[in-house]
Design brief:
This protein is mostly helical. The chain contains seven helices and three strands; from the N terminus they run H-H-E-E-E-H-H-H-H-H. Helix content is 71%, strand content 6%. A hairpin with a 4-residue loop joins strand 2 and strand 3. Helix 5 packs antiparallel against helix 6.
Length: 230
């Protein structure tokens, strides 16, 4: 027996629309403000180093990584990794993104609770992201042959992955708040340039909101389908 369309699948339509809108918004914001050079002439790496120093965080290194939009903070090795375009860039977008990643490093240094929880949840959520759907699919197909536990296990694992996306939200929003505060306090950007930073970081935040919304709706969809199989 193969899976057939279920009315609950319609829940994913608004999630997909939201995700497409969020991606378009961040692409537009990044495309616009990555072309506008700041008056200070500082690079993303320059600003990242100064913000780390001002925050008293001296055990975090800075590095460049290949690719576009590959910027991230690695808590395992205490390293802020910036893409070439951000680390060496002098645009409004580059400085905003660099400051955001430094925000994560400061969260780590200060023991920010949601970040610690996210780090704790990561192993289980990673397993859930990998195994949940194969188990759910197998449970839906073979559930009537004594394999109903597969569906339940898949739901539990996927729930962990959904919880991870929700916990990620305050981590990302707080990092952006720290970035804006640090850039404003440092006087690295003009008021007009700061508005651009807020638009770039706000658009990026919406992609995390869209991911969380899609995960929650997908879990609700699975629960409805599973209940119909009882």
């Amino acid at each position: 027996m193969f899976y057939m369309f279920h009315p609950a699948d319609l829940l994913m339509i608004p999630a997909m629309v939201f995700a497409l809108w969020a991606q378009a918004r961040v692409k537009h914001a990044y495309g616009k403000y990555s072309q506008i050079t700041t008056r200070s002439g500082m690079t993303g790496a320059d600003v990242a180093a100064v913000i780390l120093e001002n925050a008293g965080v001296r055990n975090v290194s800075l590095g460049l990584v290949p690719g576009e939009m590959t910027d991230h903070y690695d808590p395992a090795v205490k390293r802020v990794n910036l893409s070439q375009e951000v680390g060496g860039g002098r645009s409004i977008a580059a400085l905003g993104i660099a400051a955001h990643e430094v925000g994560h490093a400061i969260q780590d240094a200060q023991g920010y609770a949601p970040m610690k929880l996210r780090h704790f949840m990561y192993p289980v959520s990673s397993i859930g992201s990998t195994l949940a759907f194969p188990l759910i699919f197998a449970g839906l197909i073979f559930g009537g042959n004594g394999f109903g536990f597969l569906l339940q296990l898949g739901i539990y694992l996927f729930s962990a992955a959904v919880a991870f996306t929700i916990v990620t939200l305050p981590v990302e929003f707080d990092a952006s708040r720290r970035a804006v505060k640090a850039l404003s306090a440092g006087g690295y950007l003009t008021d007009d340039e700061m508005r651009g930073v807020r638009k770039v970081l706000g658009a990026a935040a919406m992609t995390y909101v869209a991911a969380a919304a899609a995960a929650v709706l997908n879990l609700l969809r699975i629960l409805i389908i599973a209940r119909g199989r009882d």
